[in-house]
Amino acid sequence: MPSMAQNGRVTTDFKQSNQAHNSNAFARREEIRQQRESLPIASVKERLIEEVKKHDVLIIVGETGSGKTTQIPQFLFSAGFCREGKSVGITQPRRVAAVTVAKRVAEECGVELGQKVGYSIRFDDRTSGVTRIKYMTDGLLLREALLDPYLSRYSVVIVDEAHERTVHTDVLLGLLKNVQKARLKSQDRKFPPLKLIIMSASLDARVFSEYFGGARAVHIQGRQHPVDILYTLYPEKDYVDAALVTIFQIHLEERHGDILVFLTGQEEIEAVERLVQERLRQLPESNRKLVTVPIFSSLPSEQQMRVFMPAPDGHRKVVLATNIAETSVTIPGIKFVIDPGFVKARSYDPAKGMESLIIIPTSKAQALQRSGRAGREGPGKCFRLYPESEFEKLEDSTKPEIKRCNLANVILQLKALGVDDIFGFDFIEKPSRAAIVKSLEHLFLLGALTDDCKLSDPVGHQMARLPLDPIYSKALILASQFNCLEEMLITVAMLSVDSVFYAPREKLDESRTAAKCFASPDGDHITLINVYRAAEDLLEKRKWVPHTERNEKIFKAKSEKIFKRWCKENFINGRSVRHARDIHSQIRGHVEQMGLRITSCGDDMLQFRRCLAASFFINAALKQPEGNYRAFGTGQVVQIHPSSVLFQSKVECVVFNEMVQTTNKYIRNVTRIEYMWLTELAPHYYTMQS
Ligand code: CDP
Ligand code: MG
Questions:
Q1: Where in this chain does the record put each Helicase C-terminal domain (predicted)?
Q2: Helices then strands, each counted (H, E), the chain
Q3: Residue nearest atom 24 of ligand 1, based on CA coordinates
Q4: Is the distance from CB of 605 to CB of 522 less than 8 angstroms?
Q5: What's the 137 CA to ligand 2 centre distance in angstroms?
Q6: Shortest-distance ligand to the CA of residue 160
Q7: Contact at 8 Å (CB) between 620 and 659?
Q8: Contact status, residue 579 vs residue 497, Cβ threshold 8 Å
Q9: d(CA 375, CA 377)
Q10: Residue 545, pLDDT score
Q11: Would you call the peptide bond into 431 cis, given omega within 30 degrees of 0 as the criterion?
Q12: Measured in whole angstroms, how far is the alpha carbon of residue 232 from the centre of its chain?
């Protein structure tokens, strides 16, 4: 059985005898059985099954941790909903939740993952023909509908975490409503009625119930212990530092119990991880019994399960999480919550057609969910790192994502599903007309739509097939024409993961010097390619040795070791690079299937930069006399982000992929281009502008 070593890494104890293993396995099964029986949902199993049988749409509201996600699909399975090869599908807004819950449920059922219980998320499918309980992201089910418009393999679809109101959840609800109607109308026995369950942790089921014509809602009583809420006296200037101080205050002064800290993203989590390690080294040996465990969406799946494992004996665990731990995953053992009160969110300005990621205060509902995590198993404490007066100023609940994101992706998918009239689509909450118009315009500029707003052939259809942001899908299609698809595949993979470089505050100079070895004077895209290729070289260097199984193992271990050292020396995030390699191989598979020509432009980076200009022309910016840049499309004044290789350079014209807004508006992932290329390669846009 896996156990945690002193340094917090997961190790496997191979020395266990078989007998010990058997009794361990027995004890584990017994433990799981008891845990399941003590969940609040266990006592209402029969009633729930009856409700599902009676109603085609059912809304289930229950506190986080009551057992909705892990238990209800198993109840339905045992009640016969998976007869005749049908499955129960459960959607999650987040990848990590789909993966960790599927693993847990497979363990509860005593089956291997990918057999009866599996998961499927973008770029990672662990299901098979015999899978009957399938966890997946909401986005993935939307894509499945492209191939199977009746979702015929499912007898029940459960939309979980509906209160999160991600754009995919909202669109999926509309789609499922249509599928349900279509199945009812169909006389074909292949399509029995579809049962729909909407699960939510928020008490307000009204909006869902109304949307489904007054659908029935049931509430599951949770178990919640009292949680002391503590506020700071004054606003904190640096919430990362405040969180750090609070972690150690709890560690040194409070009774036992694990800590959960809510941070905004991978970069911040990894920075805090390093800072905790560093401060620990300054403490006396006896006070060092603290282990950190990160959890965020792009964490490789083999590392995700670590949050569920207990800390080694006598140690305290600090879970550093994004808002994923608010309701999506329930982590046992938490007694203390640290809530800086911020979250990273998408924000879209339809007037400018620009989407950006911003860090904003949480809503009251989120703050309550976060503090609730401290009281699952007993009384707890929540440290809100802001003054009490600030709480009152928070919004009551989070605005649905569909109201604050670029809709191009969703519209492309709806069009591919045959929904041509986007304005007439029955959204649970309609996005603004301006946002729809702007996103249609965006798709039109990318060549995905014809003049009468239909999907264009072949570009629009090809774009809809790729599981990527439309602008990236288009970049791949163009790259095959520019003979640089190999380079673009790497670029898109690297742009799809979180920061590849890290720059710890205390080693800023060192990390910047290290990053220079990969830097291209042309910009970040080519720099990312350089990093990717260098990593690939290290990980696949064993070509010259004879291919035997033993050799493979030795060299794999050796190259892994070299890779780790190389990452450390060069301040490169190994996790991100591995993730990018994964994504790369998946997208490569897609474009091969589509019959695109994969060739490399070799050293001709001019060709590649021209392709970047042709692909990302919507995001181009020109240097202004005072040194800032002005984005063409939106007219916004922006600066090149300090993490870019072009920071403080004097280049005239650039294309970029991302805009982040902190105190200033920054553009990231930037490449130098010639202004003239824009009028040549995107005349439909640039003649219109001038
Ligand atoms: O969906 P809901 O929040 O109602 O609860 P759940 O996710 O079904 O979790 C039920 C219980 O399973 C919780 O007590 C979790 O701690 C536990 N669980 C776990 O131990 N390991 C997982 N990977 C997932 C859940
Ligand atoms: Mg759940």
A1: 244-418
A2: 25, 23
A3: 101
A4: yes
A5: 13
A6: 2
A7: no
A8: yes
A9: 6
A10: 59
A11: no
A12: 31
Average pLDDT value for the chain? 90
Closest-CA residue, ligand 1 atom 10, reads: 67
The residue written with tokens 């060549």 in the block is: 447
CA distance 389 to 446: 47
User: Rounded CA gap, 463 and 473, in Å?
Assistant: 5
- Give 542's pLDDT tier (boundaries 50, 70, 90): low
CA of 71 to the centre of ligand 1 (A): 9
Query: How far is Cα 479 from Cα 4, in angstroms, rounded to an integer?
Result: 46
Spell out the residues 6+ positions from residue 20 whose beta carbon is closer than 8 angstroms to its own. Answer: none
Structural tokens at position 419: 């929904």
Tokens of 56: 């085609």
The pocket around ligand 1, CB under 6 angstroms, is made up of 39, 62, 64-71, 100-101, 104, 308, 330, 332
Q: How far is CA 247 from CA 168, 238, 339, 504, 617, in A?
A: 35, 14, 11, 19, 45
- Give pLDDT, residue 4: 33
Q: Token digits for 479?
A: 């790259």
Distance CA 195, CA 493 (A): 37
* Distance in angstroms (rounded) separating the CA atoms of residues 57 and 46: 17
Taking each helix axis as running N to C, give the angle between helix 524-539 and helix 549-570, from 0 to 180 degrees, rounded to the nearest 10. 140
Helix axes 470-481, 408-416, angle to 10 degrees: 80
Report CA-CA distances (Å) from 79 to 430, 480, 532.
37, 51, 49
Which residue among 38, 61, 70 is best mutated to probe the pocket of ligand 1, counting the most ligand atoms within 8 A of its Cβ?
Answer: 70
**Probe residue for ligand 1, chosen from 41, 64, 330 as the CB with the greatest number of ligand atoms within 8 Å:** 330
The two structure tokens encoding residue 534? 């260098």
Q: What is the pLDDT of residue 515?
A: 83
What is the identity of the amino acid at 455?
L
Residues with Cβ < 8 Å from 659, sequence gap 6 or more?
Answer: 354, 355, 356, 619, 631, 638, 665, 666, 667, 668
pLDDT for the residue numbered 14 = 34
Q: Which amino acid is at 81?
A: F
